[in-house]
C-alpha cells in the first residue's frame, strides 16, 4: 500500500516538525465519566400500545397480584392499602398505590462516588456503563475458565477502575473461595480501597446490607444522617419472574429505601420461558414486576431513589437455551425504554452474549445488544463488557475488547462541529492541489495530535507488518493489555485513619461470625 | 443451568405436541429483499452547518475547480457552461449548473434485477446491502490468504446470491487469473448465470462497458430502447480525491448516464491523508466531488440515475495506516447522510474493517461502522460483510459472520406489534402462576415455531455441550457454513436460448481480442 508508506513518511516528517509546536504525546480531552446519550431514540411500538401495556400491568397487579415471600414486605404493602392474602402470600396492588409511588419516586438521582469527579446523575438522557456482572466463573487465555476467586474479583475491580467509561462498579464475578458469611466484607473493602467509583452491594439479607452501609460510612467519613441524605451505593433487585418477590430481594428493597440508597429493579426474563414469548407480553410482565417493587420502596420511604430496569431476551425455541444480542432482545430494550419514559424514570438495560468464548459471535451479540440499549435511551447499560455464556462467565479479554467499543461510543457522545475552522476552506481545502494530500495543511498541523480516537486493542498495521509481529488476533492481544493494566495498577489515595477504622470494623465483625446470606 | 434443562425437556414435549398443529420446520415470513430503514436518523452537525458545507462545496467547484482528465468530459462540461482550462485540464463548475443537475437527478431509482421479486428501489428510506467489494485477495481458513482467482469470484457470487439480505451484487474480489481484456466477460456471464440479483459492472473504459451492456441485454431479452428505459445494472465511480476525475471514471459516468444505468459516485477519502483531518472538511471535499460527477451525468443525459455516495474514514495519525469502524468514520457517515438528505438523493455509505483476519476487532469495527450507516439513513451500505484489511482482502468466514448481523438488522426492519394478542393477558399472563413458566401457554403454542430469528452461525449451546462438540469458535463454524452453501448451490433458472446467445457473443468478442481496460 504505497499510500500507507507515503503517509507514514509524511507523518514522521511532519511529526518531527510538529514536536516544536504541539505536545509530543497525543492528549485528547474527552470526559468519559459523565456521558449524555447522543443517539436518537427508537420506538418499537406506537405510544397507544405502550399505554395499553402499562394499563395491562396495572390490571395484573390488581387482579393477578404478586407473590411476596417476606412477611415484613407484606405488612408494608398492607399498611399502604394493598389487599394481602397471608395464606397464599399474594399481594394485590391498586393503581392508586402505583400512581402515588410514581409521584414520589425521584426522576433524577445524584450518585456520590468516592471522589467528586466520579459523581454522576441517573436520569433520562444520561448514559452510564457497567461491566458484565454476577458470573460464577472467570475466564482468560492464560489461566482458562475456572470458578471465580477473590483474586479474580480484585483483578476485575482493577480493570473496571482503569477504564473511565465504566462509571459504576459491578459485581463482575463471585469470589467463591471467600466464605459467604464474610464475603461482603471482602468485596466492600476492595471496592473502597481499590477504586473511588460508585460501589455495588448485594441484597443478601439485612445483616449483610447493614454491614456494608456501615463500612461505607466509615470509609467516606459520613454520619448516619449524612449517609442517608444521598445515594452512595446501589443494589440490583431481580424479581423472580413471573410475579414473585423473594425474601432477600424484598429485604433489599426495604433496606436500601430506608437508607436512601439506590435500588435498580431488574426482572431478568427470557421470552418463551419465564416470560411470554412475545416482546409485548414479556415487557408487560417485567413492567408489572418493576412497578410492584417500586411501590414497596416508596411505601417504605417516599422519595427513596429507585431505578427502573429490565433485562429481557429470548430463548432458542429449538433447545431452550438463552440467547442474547438478538433482534428480540433489541426490541425488548426499545419497549422497556418507551415504558421508562412513560414513567419518566431513569432505567437500566443490558447487553450481553451467549457465546462460550471471546469470539466473533461474542463481539457481534454484545454490540448488537448494546445498540439496542443506546437507541432505547437506557440510562445504565449493564453487562456492557466481558459477559459470556449468558452470564456464567466473565472474560478478561472480552472486557478489554468491549471497552474499546464503549470508548468509541463515549467519543460519539462528545459530538463534532462543522464551523469555519473545521470546514477549513482556507486552512485545508484551498491549500491542496488536485491529487495532492493533506498531511501538512495548517488545519492538519493544528490537529493531528488530537484528531482521532486512539484504540488500545484494535490494530491498524497492514497484513505484512501484522504477520511479522506474529499474526496475533485481538483476543490474544487483549491478554497483554489486561496484564499490563494489572501490573501497573495504582489505587486512588486513601485516608489512612478511615482505612484503619474500616479494617478494625471488619476484624471485629469477622470475629463475631460475620453475617451469613439470607435465602 | 436447571432452567435450561427444564426448558429443553418442556420444549421437546411441547414440540412433539406441536408437530400436529404446526409445520415441522420453523418458517418465518420475513422479506429481506426489499427493506425500509426502521432506525431514527442521527445528525452530527446542526442544519445551518450542513448548509455551510454545501455552500463551501459549491464555492470549491467555482473557485478551485476539478481536474478532469478525459477530453470528452471536459467538452461536455464546457458545452454545459462550465469554465474549462484545457492546459491545466481544470473545470470550474458554476452553482447554477449544480442546481440544474440536482433538479433533473431522480430522487427514486427502480432497479430491475433478473427476476421481479429481486427488484428494489433506491430512494431515501430504503435499505440495501452489498458485501465487501474490490479486494485483490481472498482468504478463508481452509485455503489461506491468496491473490483472488476466478474460482474465488464465482464462490463469493454464490454466497452473495444465497443470502437475501444482499440485494445487490458487488465485485467482491478481483479474479486475477482471468486476463484483463476478457475479465469482464467472465464476471458478467457469472452474474447472469449464477444469480438473478442486480448486477455490477466496472467502469474500465467504454469498450468494456458496451460489452457488458450488450451481454445483459441479450441475457434479459431487451431491445436497446428497453435496456435504456430502466436501470438494469450499476457501477461505482471513485473520484481521485482530492478534486480529480480520471479517464475511466469519467467515461463510466458518461456511458452509464447515456444508457440510463446507475452510477454510484463514491469518493473514497481518508481524513488526514487524501482529505482534511476533520469530518467537516473531509465530507465537504467529498460532497464537492460528488456534485461535480453528478453534474457530468445530468449534462450527459438529464434524468440519468445517479446515487450520491461517500466512504470517509480516518488514518491512524501515528502510523498513517487507514482505520475503519472508528468514531470519525461513524460521524462521517452521519454528515454525509445529512448532505444527501439536503439534496434529497438516495446515497450509499460503507462499513468495513482494518483488521487482518476475521476476529473480534473485525466484528466490532464492521458492526460499529454499520450502525453509523444505519443511523445516517444510508440507502446502500457497501462493504457490509466480509471486508478485511481496509479492502485488501475479503474473507469467506467473515462474510458468513457479518451476514448474521445483517439478517438481524433485517429482522428489525419488520418491526413488532403490541396489540391484545401480543400482550396476551388472557392467553399468557393470566395462564401462569407466580414462579411458573410460559412454555405451554396458548400464546406460546401459537408462536413458538416462528417467534424468534434463528441464527446460522451463532451457537447457543451451553459451555458443556459446546465443549463436547469440540469448542469451535464462530470463525471456524463459519467455514462449514460457506462450504455447505457452495456444495448445495443451485443457480436460478435460465432461458437456454439467451444463455446460448450470450455464450456466442462472448466467444466472438474473445476471438476479436476482447477489450483491454482503460487507464
What labels would you give this structure?
homodimer, 519 residues, TIM Barrel, seven-stranded mixed β-sheet, four-stranded mixed β-sheet, 20 strands, disordered N terminus, MTTB_MeTrfase (chains A, B), MttB-like_sf (chains A, B)
Task: Explain what the structure shows.
Two copies of one chain form a homodimer. By secondary structure, chain A is an alpha/beta fold. Chain A has a single domain (47-413), classed as TIM Barrel. Helices cover 46% and strands 13% of the residues of chain A. Chain A is built from 19 helices and 20 strands. In chain A, strands 1-7-18-17-14-12-10 form a seven-stranded mixed beta sheet. The first copy, chain A, has a four-stranded mixed beta sheet with strand order 3-4-2-11. In chain A, 59% of the residues are buried. The model of chain A is unreliable at 1-26 (pLDDT under 50). Chains A and B meet through helix 1, helix 2, helix 10, strand 16 and helix 11 of A and helix 1, helix 2, helix 10, strand 16 and helix 11 of B. Chains A, B: It is an enzyme of class 2 (transferase). Chains A, B: It holds the Pfam family MTTB. Chains A, B: Residues 1-31 are annotated as: Disordered. Chains A, B: Keywords: Methyltransferase, Transferase. Chains A, B: One of its GO terms (biological process) is methanogenesis.
Amino acid at each position: 500500500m504505497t499510500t500507507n508508506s507515503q503517509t507514514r513518511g509524511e507523518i514522521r516528517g511532519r511529526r518531527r516538525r510538529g514536536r516544536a509546536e504541539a505536545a509530543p504525546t497525543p492528549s485528547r480531552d474527552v470526559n468519559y465519566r459523565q456521558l449524555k446519550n447522543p443517539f436518537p431514540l427508537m420506538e418499537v411500538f406506537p405510544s397507544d400500545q405502550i399505554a395499553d401495556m402499562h394499563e395491562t400491568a396495572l390490571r395484573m397487579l390488581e387482579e393477578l397480584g404478586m407473590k411476596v415471600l417476606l412477611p415484613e414486605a407484606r405488612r408494608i404493602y398492607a399498611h399502604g392499602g394493598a389487599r394481602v392474602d397471608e395464606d397464599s402470600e399474594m399481594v394485590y396492588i391498586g393503581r392508586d398505590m402505583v400512581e402515588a409511588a410514581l409521584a414520589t419516586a425521584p426522576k433524577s438521582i445524584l450518585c456520590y462516588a468516592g471522589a467528586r469527579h466520579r459523581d454522576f446523575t441517573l436520569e433520562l438522557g444520561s448514559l452510564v456503563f457497567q461491566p458484565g456482572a454476577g458470573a460464577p466463573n472467570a475466564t482468560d487465555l492464560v489461566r482458562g475458565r475456572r470458578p471465580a476467586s477473590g483474586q479474580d474479583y480484585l483483578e476485575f475491580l482493577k480493570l473496571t477502575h482503569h477504564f473511565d467509561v465504566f462509571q459504576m462498579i459491578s459485581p463482575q464475578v463471585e469470589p467463591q473461595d471467600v466464605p459467604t458469611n464474610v464475603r461482603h466484607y471482602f468485596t466492600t473493602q476492595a471496592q473502597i480501597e481499590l477504586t473511588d467509583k460508585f460501589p455495588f452491594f448485594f441484597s443478601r439479607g439485612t445483616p449483610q446490607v447493614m454491614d456494608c452501609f456501615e463500612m461505607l460510612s466509615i470509609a467516606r467519613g459520613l454520619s448516619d444522617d449524612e449517609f442517608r441524605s444521598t445515594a452512595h451505593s446501589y443494589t440490583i433487585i431481580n424479581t423472580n419472574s413471573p410475579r414473585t418477590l423473594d425474601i432477600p430481594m424484598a429485604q433489599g428493597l426495604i433496606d436500601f429505601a430506608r437508607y436512601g440508597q439506590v435500588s435498580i429493579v431488574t426482572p431478568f426474563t427470557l421470552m418463551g420461558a419465564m416470560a411470554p414469548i412475545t416482546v409485548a407480553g414479556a415487557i408487560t410482565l417485567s413492567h408489572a414486576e418493576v412497578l410492584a417493587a417500586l411501590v414497596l420502596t416508596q411505601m417504605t420511604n417516599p422519595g427513596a431513589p429507585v431505578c427502573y430496569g429490565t433485562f429481557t431476551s429470548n430463548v432458542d425455541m429449538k433447545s431452550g437455551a438463552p440467547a442474547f444480542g438478538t433482534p428480540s432482545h433489541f426490541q425488548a430494550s426499545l419497549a422497556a425504554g418507551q415504558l421508562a419514559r412513560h414513567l419518566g424514570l431513569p432505567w437500566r438495560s443490558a447487553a450481553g452474549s451467549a457465546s462460550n468464548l471471546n469470539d466473533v459471535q461474542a463481539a457481534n451479540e454484545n454490540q448488537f445488544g448494546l445498540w439496542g440499549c443506546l437507541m432505547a435511551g437506557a440510562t445504565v447499560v449493564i453487562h456492557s463488557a466481558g459477559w459470556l455464556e449468558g452470564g456464567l462467565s466473565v472474560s478478561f479479554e472480552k472486557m478489554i475488547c468491549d471497552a474499546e467499543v464503549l470508548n468509541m461510543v463515549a467519543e460519539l457522545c462528545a459530538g463534532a462541529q462543522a464551523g469555519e475552522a473545521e470546514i477549513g476552506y482556507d486552512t485545508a481545502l484551498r491549500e491542496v492541489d488536485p491529487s495532492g494530500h493533506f498531511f501538512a495543511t495548517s488545519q492538519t498541523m493544528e490537529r493531528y495530535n488530537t484528531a482521532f480516537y486512539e484504540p488500545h486493542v484494535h490494530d491498524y498495521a497492514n497484513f505484512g507488518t501484522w504477520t511479522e509481529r506474529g499474526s496475533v488476533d485481538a483476543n490474544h492481544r487483549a491478554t497483554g493489555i489486561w496484564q499490563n493494566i494489572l501490573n501497573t495498577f495504582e489505587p486512588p489515595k486513601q485516608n489512612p485513619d478511615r482505612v484503619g477504622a474500616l479494617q478494625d470494623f471488619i476484624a471485629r465483625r469477622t470475629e463475631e461470625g460475620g453475617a451469613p446470606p439470607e435465602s
